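[PROTEIN RECORD]
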Amino acid sequence: MLDRFNFKEKPPKERFLFILGLIVFLGFIILGLMIMFWQRLPLKMTAFQRYVFGSVTILYAVIRFSRLIPKK
């Protein structure tokens, strides 16, 4: 699996886009967790709605990350 992420074979543009994709992935994961568990976040939602919205955000992050991984 680690041979898929060989940075020496990628041109600088692809490396930059890969790292940017990882940063966006982590950002969406953190955003989903904040929506779910940070009670002081000013969202007028019930607890169930917060968990569903946070879960959908995390699921979106996972889908984006799966598209980021190069296929052989």
Notes: The mean pLDDT is 85.
